[in-house]
User: Which sequence fits this backbone?
């Protein structure tokens, strides 16, 4: 088990960092992904590449994280934790890249969770729509429709902030 | 007509910069501790399969199937008894004599 974690943790952390807002959240998400992996091991089919299967668990964990945030914001009227300033404790290797990533994440946080997941994977990870559709068992048409809706919402946000 | 996206827009530049961001180091010790303390799931045995038949989501279909089977069996029994009745009456009236 240790070997599995050591082999895949960098890729999983890289992916989930696109979702997480702070290093503490990233630790939680990576941990949750690997715990889900352990619990789901009996359902893994050997003909399926392990890395793909694990990536699928990670993307679902990321999407659940977005959903939890949305629900918490809606029901507890929290003052939008996603819009909080970036964590200043973590010294980033490239502060400009970190600032840009935080700005993008803050913008995407205004979208509904599924659209936020979609654009996070598409814009920040560079995934194609077909790949995203496969990952979540969505049809390609539904994914394109979601993307169109998400882009329309994002465009309005970008125009507000003079980023377009 | 749709205008093509401006490749040099502030958003495009922001995205390109954001993609270069790398994750902070993980708390690997805590991660390994959590994974090691998670019990490994055991593979399903016949008793798990049997108990699975009584899972809440299967109760309603199982009840419907059971009721259907019982109704079918009862109908068949009634039909066979109905078929045997004239013979029984004949046996009673004639005392079994031809």
Assistant:
């Amino acid at each position: 088990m240790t070997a599995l974690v050591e082999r895949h943790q960098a890729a999983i952390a890289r992916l989930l960092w696109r979702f997480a807002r702070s290093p503490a959240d990233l630790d939680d998400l990576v941990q949750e992904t690997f715990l889900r992996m352990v619990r789901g091991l009996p359902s893994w089919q050997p003909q399926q590449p392990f890395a793909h299967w694990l990536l699928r668990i990670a993307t679902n964990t990321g999407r659940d994280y977005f959903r939890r945030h949305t629900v918490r914001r809606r029901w507890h009227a929290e003052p939008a934790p996603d819009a909080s300033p970036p964590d200043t404790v973590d010294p980033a290797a490239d502060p400009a890249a970190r600032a840009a990533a935080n700005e993008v994440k803050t913008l995407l946080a205004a979208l509904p969770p599924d659209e936020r997941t979609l654009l996070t994977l598409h814009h920040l990870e560079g995934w194609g729509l077909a790949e995203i559709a496969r990952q979540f068992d969505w049809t390609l048409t539904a994914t394109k429709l979601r993307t169109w809706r998400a882009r329309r919402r994002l465009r309005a946000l970008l125009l507000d902030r003079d980023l377009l | 007509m749709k205008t093509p996206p401006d490749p040099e827009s502030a958003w495009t530049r922001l995205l390109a910069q954001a993609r270069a961001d790398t994750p902070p180091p993980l708390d690997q010790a805590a991660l390994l501790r959590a994974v090691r303390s998670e019990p490994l799931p055991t593979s399903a045995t016949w008793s798990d399969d049997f108990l699975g038949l009584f899972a809440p989501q299967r109760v309603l279909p199982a009840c419907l199937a059971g009721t259907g089977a019982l109704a079918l069996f009862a109908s068949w029994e009634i039909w066979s008894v109905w078929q045997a009745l004239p013979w029984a009456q004949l046996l009673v009236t004639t005392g079994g004599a031809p």
